[in-house]
Fold this sequence. Notes:
The protein is built from 9 helices and 7 strands, in the order E-H-E-E-H-E-H-E-H-E-H-H-E-H-H-H. It is α/β, with parallel strands linked by helices. It has a single domain, classed as 3-Layer(aba) Sandwich (Rossmann fold), CATH 3.40.50. The chain has a 7-stranded parallel β-sheet, with helices on both faces. Helix 1 crosses helix 6 (183-195), helix 2 packs across helix 3 (78-99) and helix 3 runs parallel beside helix 4 (136-155). Nicotinamide-adenine-dinucleotide binds next to helix 1, helix 3 and strand 5.
Amino acid sequence: MSQVLVTGAAGRIGTVLRGGLPERGWAVRSLDVVPMTDTRPGEEQVVADTTDLTAMEDAVAGVSAVVHLAGIATESTWPAISHANIEGTYCVLEAARRAGVSRVVLASSNHATGYTPRPDGGLLREVDAPPRPDTYYGVSKAAMEALGSLYVDRYGMDVVCLRIGSAFAEPTTVRHLSTWLSPGDQVRLVDAALRAPAPGFAVVWGVSANTRNWWDLTAARALGYEPADDAEVFASALVEAYGEPDLADPVHARVGGEYTLAQFDAENVEPPLPGGDIAPGSGAER
Ligand SMILES: NC(=O)c1ccc[n+]([C@@H]2O[C@H](COP(=O)([O-])OP(=O)(O)OC[C@H]3O[C@@H](n4cnc5c(N)ncnc54)[C@H](O)[C@@H]3O)[C@@H](O)[C@H]2O)c1
Protein backbone atom coordinates (compact mmCIF):
# COMPACT_ATOMS: atom_id res chain seq x y z
CA MET A 1 0.00 0.00 0.00
CA SER A 2 1.41 3.43 -0.93
CA GLN A 3 1.85 5.84 1.93
CA VAL A 4 1.00 9.54 1.73
CA LEU A 5 2.14 12.26 4.12
CA VAL A 6 -0.73 14.61 5.00
CA THR A 7 0.39 17.91 6.58
CA GLY A 8 -2.10 19.89 8.64
CA ALA A 9 -3.72 16.54 9.35
CA ALA A 10 -5.39 17.66 12.59
CA GLY A 11 -7.39 20.35 10.76
CA ARG A 12 -10.81 20.21 9.14
CA ILE A 13 -9.80 18.90 5.72
CA GLY A 14 -7.00 16.78 7.20
CA THR A 15 -9.43 15.02 9.50
CA VAL A 16 -11.72 14.25 6.55
CA LEU A 17 -8.82 12.88 4.49
CA ARG A 18 -7.50 10.76 7.35
CA GLY A 19 -10.89 9.07 7.37
CA GLY A 20 -11.34 8.77 3.61
CA LEU A 21 -7.95 8.12 2.04
CA PRO A 22 -7.40 4.72 3.72
CA GLU A 23 -10.70 3.51 2.18
CA ARG A 24 -9.16 4.34 -1.19
CA GLY A 25 -6.04 2.33 -0.54
CA TRP A 26 -3.69 4.94 0.92
CA ALA A 27 -1.75 4.45 4.12
CA VAL A 28 -1.59 7.81 5.89
CA ARG A 29 1.24 9.46 7.82
CA SER A 30 -0.35 12.42 9.58
CA LEU A 31 1.67 15.52 10.43
CA ASP A 32 0.62 18.57 12.41
CA VAL A 33 2.05 20.95 15.02
CA VAL A 34 -0.86 19.84 17.18
CA PRO A 35 -0.81 16.27 18.50
CA MET A 36 -3.79 14.15 17.41
CA THR A 37 -5.64 11.93 19.85
CA ASP A 38 -7.90 10.32 17.24
CA THR A 39 -5.45 8.45 15.02
CA ARG A 40 -6.74 5.23 13.49
CA PRO A 41 -5.11 1.81 13.38
CA GLY A 42 -2.32 1.86 10.80
CA GLU A 43 -2.08 5.66 10.78
CA GLU A 44 1.35 7.07 11.63
CA GLN A 45 1.61 10.37 13.48
CA VAL A 46 4.34 13.01 13.27
CA VAL A 47 4.23 16.14 15.42
CA ALA A 48 6.29 18.71 13.55
CA ASP A 49 6.27 22.21 12.10
CA THR A 50 6.30 22.42 8.30
CA THR A 51 8.66 25.42 8.51
CA ASP A 52 11.35 23.14 9.99
CA LEU A 53 13.13 21.79 6.90
CA THR A 54 15.09 19.16 8.82
CA ALA A 55 11.93 17.83 10.44
CA MET A 56 10.22 17.77 7.06
CA GLU A 57 13.08 15.79 5.53
CA ASP A 58 12.51 13.17 8.24
CA ALA A 59 8.73 13.31 7.76
CA VAL A 60 8.77 12.60 4.01
CA ALA A 61 11.15 9.63 4.24
CA GLY A 62 9.56 6.59 2.60
CA VAL A 63 6.28 8.13 1.42
CA SER A 64 5.22 8.14 -2.22
CA ALA A 65 3.39 11.49 -2.14
CA VAL A 66 2.61 14.51 0.03
CA VAL A 67 -0.70 16.30 0.53
CA HIS A 68 0.19 19.71 1.97
CA LEU A 69 -2.66 21.30 3.94
CA ALA A 70 -0.78 22.83 6.88
CA GLY A 71 -0.85 26.56 7.39
CA ILE A 72 -3.01 29.47 8.43
CA ALA A 73 -6.35 28.93 6.68
CA THR A 74 -7.63 32.51 6.78
CA GLU A 75 -6.36 36.09 6.68
CA SER A 76 -3.78 37.12 9.29
CA THR A 77 -0.77 39.40 9.60
CA TRP A 78 1.93 39.35 6.94
CA PRO A 79 4.65 37.94 9.26
CA ALA A 80 2.38 35.09 10.34
CA ILE A 81 1.08 34.29 6.85
CA SER A 82 4.43 34.53 5.08
CA HIS A 83 6.13 32.29 7.63
CA ALA A 84 3.52 29.54 8.01
CA ASN A 85 2.22 29.46 4.44
CA ILE A 86 5.09 30.48 2.17
CA GLU A 87 8.11 29.26 4.17
CA GLY A 88 6.11 26.15 5.08
CA THR A 89 5.31 25.35 1.44
CA TYR A 90 8.95 25.86 0.45
CA CYS A 91 10.08 23.41 3.15
CA VAL A 92 7.52 20.79 2.09
CA LEU A 93 8.49 20.97 -1.59
CA GLU A 94 12.22 21.09 -0.88
CA ALA A 95 12.05 18.16 1.55
CA ALA A 96 10.09 16.17 -1.05
CA ARG A 97 12.61 17.00 -3.77
CA ARG A 98 15.56 15.98 -1.61
CA ALA A 99 13.87 12.68 -0.74
CA GLY A 100 12.87 11.90 -4.33
CA VAL A 101 9.15 12.17 -3.55
CA SER A 102 7.87 13.36 -6.91
CA ARG A 103 4.13 13.93 -6.27
CA VAL A 104 2.90 16.82 -4.12
CA VAL A 105 -0.70 18.01 -3.82
CA LEU A 106 -0.99 21.60 -2.56
CA ALA A 107 -4.04 23.10 -0.84
CA SER A 108 -4.32 26.37 -2.70
CA SER A 109 -7.43 28.51 -2.49
CA ASN A 110 -9.90 30.52 -4.53
CA HIS A 111 -8.38 33.50 -2.68
CA ALA A 112 -5.22 33.17 -4.82
CA THR A 113 -7.36 34.79 -7.51
CA GLY A 114 -10.06 36.35 -5.34
CA TYR A 115 -10.41 39.65 -7.23
CA THR A 116 -11.17 37.86 -10.49
CA PRO A 117 -14.70 38.89 -11.58
CA ARG A 118 -17.50 36.48 -12.36
CA PRO A 119 -17.73 36.06 -16.14
CA ASP A 120 -20.77 37.53 -17.93
CA GLY A 121 -21.99 34.04 -18.58
CA GLY A 122 -20.48 30.61 -18.74
CA LEU A 123 -17.87 29.07 -16.52
CA LEU A 124 -14.54 30.49 -15.32
CA ARG A 125 -11.55 28.39 -16.31
CA GLU A 126 -8.36 28.37 -14.23
CA VAL A 127 -6.37 29.67 -17.23
CA ASP A 128 -8.63 32.72 -17.25
CA ALA A 129 -8.02 33.30 -13.55
CA PRO A 130 -4.30 33.98 -13.08
CA PRO A 131 -3.07 35.03 -9.63
CA ARG A 132 -5.10 38.01 -8.43
CA PRO A 133 -5.02 37.58 -4.65
CA ASP A 134 -7.54 39.23 -2.36
CA THR A 135 -5.58 39.13 0.92
CA TYR A 136 -2.11 38.33 2.33
CA TYR A 137 -3.55 34.84 2.68
CA GLY A 138 -4.36 34.85 -1.04
CA VAL A 139 -0.83 36.06 -1.81
CA SER A 140 0.52 33.07 0.12
CA LYS A 141 -1.59 30.74 -2.03
CA ALA A 142 -0.39 32.45 -5.24
CA ALA A 143 3.16 31.96 -3.93
CA MET A 144 2.32 28.33 -3.19
CA GLU A 145 1.25 27.86 -6.81
CA ALA A 146 4.41 29.64 -8.04
CA LEU A 147 6.62 27.41 -5.88
CA GLY A 148 4.82 24.35 -7.21
CA SER A 149 5.40 25.52 -10.78
CA LEU A 150 9.10 26.02 -10.07
CA TYR A 151 9.53 22.50 -8.68
CA VAL A 152 7.81 21.02 -11.72
CA ASP A 153 9.78 22.95 -14.34
CA ARG A 154 13.16 22.76 -12.61
CA TYR A 155 13.04 19.32 -11.01
CA GLY A 156 10.43 17.42 -13.02
CA MET A 157 8.09 16.84 -10.10
CA ASP A 158 4.29 16.48 -10.36
CA VAL A 159 2.50 19.21 -8.39
CA VAL A 160 -1.29 19.57 -8.35
CA CYS A 161 -2.64 22.79 -6.83
CA LEU A 162 -6.24 22.59 -5.62
CA ARG A 163 -7.98 25.97 -5.56
CA ILE A 164 -10.40 24.89 -2.88
CA GLY A 165 -13.71 26.70 -2.53
CA SER A 166 -15.52 26.19 0.78
CA ALA A 167 -14.64 22.89 2.42
CA PHE A 168 -17.18 22.44 5.19
CA ALA A 169 -19.50 19.71 6.40
CA GLU A 170 -22.44 21.66 4.92
CA PRO A 171 -22.90 24.96 3.10
CA THR A 172 -23.89 27.74 5.53
CA THR A 173 -24.17 30.77 3.21
CA VAL A 174 -25.74 31.36 -0.21
CA ARG A 175 -22.22 31.88 -1.62
CA HIS A 176 -21.45 28.31 -0.56
CA LEU A 177 -24.18 27.12 -2.95
CA SER A 178 -21.56 27.86 -5.66
CA THR A 179 -18.33 27.22 -3.75
CA TRP A 180 -18.98 24.18 -1.53
CA LEU A 181 -16.59 21.24 -1.58
CA SER A 182 -18.26 18.44 0.35
CA PRO A 183 -16.30 16.12 2.65
CA GLY A 184 -16.81 13.18 0.26
CA ASP A 185 -15.63 15.27 -2.68
CA GLN A 186 -12.59 16.47 -0.70
CA VAL A 187 -11.50 12.84 -0.59
CA ARG A 188 -12.40 12.21 -4.27
CA LEU A 189 -10.48 15.30 -5.42
CA VAL A 190 -7.31 14.57 -3.42
CA ASP A 191 -7.40 10.91 -4.44
CA ALA A 192 -7.63 11.96 -8.13
CA ALA A 193 -4.76 14.44 -7.68
CA LEU A 194 -2.64 11.66 -6.15
CA ARG A 195 -3.43 9.14 -8.92
CA ALA A 196 -3.54 11.24 -12.11
CA PRO A 197 -0.91 9.93 -14.50
CA ALA A 198 1.89 12.50 -14.99
CA PRO A 199 -0.08 15.72 -14.37
CA GLY A 200 3.07 17.86 -14.35
CA PHE A 201 1.91 21.23 -13.02
CA ALA A 202 -1.85 21.50 -12.65
CA VAL A 203 -4.09 24.13 -11.04
CA VAL A 204 -7.72 23.08 -10.61
CA TRP A 205 -10.78 24.40 -8.80
CA GLY A 206 -11.90 22.35 -5.82
CA VAL A 207 -15.69 22.41 -5.67
CA SER A 208 -18.48 19.84 -5.69
CA ALA A 209 -20.87 19.33 -8.62
CA ASN A 210 -22.94 22.27 -7.44
CA THR A 211 -25.88 23.32 -9.62
CA ARG A 212 -24.79 26.95 -9.07
CA ASN A 213 -21.08 26.41 -9.87
CA TRP A 214 -19.44 29.13 -11.96
CA TRP A 215 -15.90 27.72 -11.67
CA ASP A 216 -15.25 25.26 -14.50
CA LEU A 217 -14.53 21.69 -13.38
CA THR A 218 -13.23 20.50 -16.77
CA ALA A 219 -9.57 20.57 -15.66
CA ALA A 220 -10.30 18.83 -12.36
CA ARG A 221 -12.34 16.15 -14.15
CA ALA A 222 -9.42 15.65 -16.56
CA LEU A 223 -7.38 14.57 -13.53
CA GLY A 224 -9.98 11.90 -12.79
CA TYR A 225 -12.10 13.82 -10.26
CA GLU A 226 -15.74 12.72 -10.26
CA PRO A 227 -17.66 14.88 -7.78
CA ALA A 228 -20.73 13.27 -6.26
CA ASP A 229 -22.33 16.04 -4.19
CA ASP A 230 -24.35 19.18 -4.98
CA ALA A 231 -24.95 22.05 -2.54
CA GLU A 232 -28.37 22.63 -4.12
CA VAL A 233 -29.96 20.20 -1.65
CA PHE A 234 -29.35 22.93 0.97
CA ALA A 235 -30.56 25.79 -1.27
CA SER A 236 -34.16 26.20 -0.16
CA ALA A 237 -33.26 26.57 3.52
CA LEU A 238 -30.37 28.98 2.83
CA VAL A 239 -32.34 31.09 0.34
CA GLU A 240 -35.25 31.27 2.76
CA ALA A 241 -32.90 32.50 5.49
CA TYR A 242 -30.72 34.89 3.46
CA GLY A 243 -32.50 35.49 0.13
CA GLU A 244 -31.34 34.79 -3.42
CA PRO A 245 -27.78 36.04 -4.07
CA ASP A 246 -27.55 39.47 -5.73
CA LEU A 247 -25.00 38.81 -8.51
CA ALA A 248 -24.04 42.52 -8.57
CA ASP A 249 -22.91 42.27 -4.93
CA PRO A 250 -19.09 41.86 -4.81
CA VAL A 251 -19.56 38.86 -2.52
CA HIS A 252 -21.12 37.06 -5.48
CA ALA A 253 -19.44 38.94 -8.34
CA ARG A 254 -15.84 38.06 -7.44
CA VAL A 255 -14.14 34.70 -6.90
CA GLY A 256 -13.02 35.57 -3.35
CA GLY A 257 -16.41 36.76 -2.06
CA GLU A 258 -16.29 38.68 1.21
CA TYR A 259 -12.49 38.38 1.40
CA THR A 260 -12.43 41.18 -1.23
CA LEU A 261 -14.30 43.57 1.11
CA ALA A 262 -12.89 46.21 3.49
CA GLN A 263 -13.39 44.01 6.54
CA PHE A 264 -10.29 42.12 5.37
CA ASP A 265 -8.12 45.26 5.12
CA ALA A 266 -4.84 44.91 7.04
CA GLU A 267 -5.93 47.12 9.98
CA ASN A 268 -8.91 44.86 10.63
CA VAL A 269 -6.91 41.63 10.73
CA GLU A 270 -6.38 39.76 13.98
CA PRO A 271 -2.77 38.89 14.82
CA PRO A 272 -2.12 35.25 15.66
CA LEU A 273 -2.29 34.27 19.31
CA PRO A 274 0.86 32.99 21.05
CA GLY A 275 1.37 29.46 19.74
CA GLY A 276 0.25 30.42 16.25
CA ASP A 277 -3.53 30.09 16.57
CA ILE A 278 -5.76 32.74 15.08
CA ALA A 279 -7.87 34.75 17.49
CA PRO A 280 -11.37 33.33 17.93
CA GLY A 281 -13.94 35.04 15.78
CA SER A 282 -11.48 36.19 13.13
CA GLY A 283 -13.15 33.76 10.74
CA ALA A 284 -11.94 30.71 8.91
CA GLU A 285 -11.62 30.34 5.14
CA ARG A 286 -15.11 30.76 3.73
N1 LIG B 1 -11.49 24.78 4.53
C1 LIG B 1 -11.62 25.50 3.39
O1 LIG B 1 -12.73 25.88 3.00
C2 LIG B 1 -10.41 25.83 2.56
C3 LIG B 1 -10.58 26.53 1.37
C4 LIG B 1 -9.46 26.84 0.59
C5 LIG B 1 -8.21 26.42 0.99
N2 LIG B 1 -8.07 25.75 2.15
C6 LIG B 1 -6.72 25.35 2.56
O2 LIG B 1 -6.72 23.98 2.91
C7 LIG B 1 -5.81 23.75 3.98
C8 LIG B 1 -6.53 23.06 5.13
O3 LIG B 1 -7.63 23.86 5.51
P1 LIG B 1 -8.48 23.53 6.82
O4 LIG B 1 -9.80 24.18 6.65
O5 LIG B 1 -8.38 22.08 7.14
O6 LIG B 1 -7.66 24.38 7.88
P2 LIG B 1 -7.47 24.13 9.46
O7 LIG B 1 -7.11 25.44 10.05
O8 LIG B 1 -8.64 23.39 10.02
O9 LIG B 1 -6.21 23.15 9.51
C9 LIG B 1 -4.90 23.59 9.30
C10 LIG B 1 -3.99 22.70 10.13
O10 LIG B 1 -2.64 23.09 9.87
C11 LIG B 1 -1.92 23.01 11.10
N3 LIG B 1 -0.75 23.88 10.99
C12 LIG B 1 -0.73 25.23 10.89
N4 LIG B 1 0.53 25.67 10.77
C13 LIG B 1 1.33 24.56 10.77
C14 LIG B 1 2.71 24.33 10.66
N5 LIG B 1 3.56 25.39 10.51
N6 LIG B 1 3.19 23.08 10.70
C15 LIG B 1 2.35 22.02 10.86
N7 LIG B 1 1.00 22.16 10.98
C16 LIG B 1 0.51 23.40 10.92
C17 LIG B 1 -2.91 23.47 12.15
O11 LIG B 1 -2.53 23.00 13.45
C18 LIG B 1 -4.21 22.84 11.64
O12 LIG B 1 -4.43 21.57 12.23
C19 LIG B 1 -5.23 25.11 4.33
O13 LIG B 1 -3.97 25.27 3.67
C20 LIG B 1 -6.23 26.08 3.77
O14 LIG B 1 -5.65 27.34 3.45
C21 LIG B 1 -9.13 25.44 2.96
